[in-house]
Specification:
Elements (H helix, E strand, L loop, with lengths): L4 E6 L1 H23 L6 E7 L3 H8 L7 E2 L2 E4 L15 E3 L10 E9 L3 H11 L5 E10 L2 H5 L4 E6 L21 E4 L1 H5 L2
Parallel strand pairs: 2-3, 2-4, 2-6, 6-7, 7-8
Antiparallel strand pairs: 1-9, 4-5
Helix pairs in contact: 1-2
Bound molecules: inosinic acid and magnesium ion.
Length: about 190
C-alpha cells in the first residue's frame, strides 16, 4: 500500500493541528449564536469518507452532541472523479422533524458539491434551528469554490487524493496522511 503513494499532500500532524483549530472555531460560533452551548446539537457525518475526520473532530468539541450518520454516494468508487455524477443514493435515517436542533453536516471533500447539496436538501425538510456545513478538504475548482460552506480545513489543488478516510476503489482510507497516488495505480484496472 505504501509503495502506491506518490507524495504526501497534508501530513497527519498538520491535519491534527487544523482539526483542533476548526473545532475551536465551531464551538465558539455555536456558543455565540446560542449565548451558551446549544441545547440540541446533531452532527451529520456523510459516510464513508468523513469517518476518520469526524472521529477526530468530535473529540475536540467540548459540547453535548449527538451523531446521525448518513450515507450518500455521488460517484461509483471505480473512478477517480465524481465530476458530473448524480447523487445515486441517499440513505437518510434522519428523524422526521429536527425542529430546535442545530445541525452540522460533515463531509470529507467538496468537489462538485452534489453530495453536500443532497444532504442540505434532506435536512431542510426537517426544519432544524440551523444548518452548518464543514468539510475536511475543498478542491480548488470553480464548482467547489462557489459552493457556500461554513468550515473548510484545507483548500487543495484539483487532484485526486486518498487517505484519512478518503478512498480509491474502497482502498487507502487507513492512510494517516492525505496523499496522492502514483499514476500507475490508476492504470492497473
Ligand atoms: P462531490 O459530491 O462532487 O462534491 O464529491 C464529494 C464526494 O466525492 C466525496 O464525499 C468523495 O467521496 C468523492 N471524492 C471527490 N473527490 C475525491 C478525491 O480526490 N478523493 C477521494 N474521493 C473523492
Ligand atoms: Mg464520500
Amino acid at each position: 500500500m505504501l509503495e502506491d503513494i506518490d507524495r504526501i499532500l497534508i501530513s497527519r500532524e498538520t491535519i491534527a493541528r487544523r482539526v483542533r483549530e476548526i473545532a475551536q472555531q465551531i464551538t465558539h460560533d455555536l456558543c455565540l449564536e446560542e449565548e451558551g452551548p446549544p441545547a440540541e446539537l446533531t452532527l451529520v457525518p456523510i459516510l464513508t469518507g468523513s469517518l476518520i475526520f469526524v472521529a477526530d473532530l468530535i473529540r475536540e468539541l467540548p459540547l453535548k452532541l449527538q451523531l446521525n450518520l448518513v450515507s450518500i454516494s455521488s460517484y461509483s468508487g471505480t473512478k477517480a472523479t465524481s465530476r458530473g455524477a448524480a447523487v445515486e443514493q441517499s440513505l437518510t435515517k434522519l428523524p422526521e422533524s429536527m425542529a430546535g436542533t442545530h445541525v452540522l453536516v460533515i463531509d470529507d471533500i467538496l468537489d462538485s458539491g452534489n453530495t453536500l447539496r443532497a444532504a442540505i436538501v434532506a435536512l431542510h425538510h426537517r426544519q432544524p434551528a440551523s444548518i452548518r456545513t464543514c468539510v475536511l478538504l475543498r478542491k480548488q475548482r470553480p464548482e467547489a469554490m462557489a459552493f457556500p460552506v461554513d468550515y473548510v480545513c484545507f483548500d487543495i489543488p484539483d487532484v485526486f487524493v486518498v487517505g484519512y478516510g478518503l478512498d480509491y476503489n474502497g482502498y487507502y482510507r487507513n492512510l494517516p496522511d492525505i496523499v496522492t497516488l502514483r499514476p500507475e495505480v490508476f492504470r492497473r484496472r
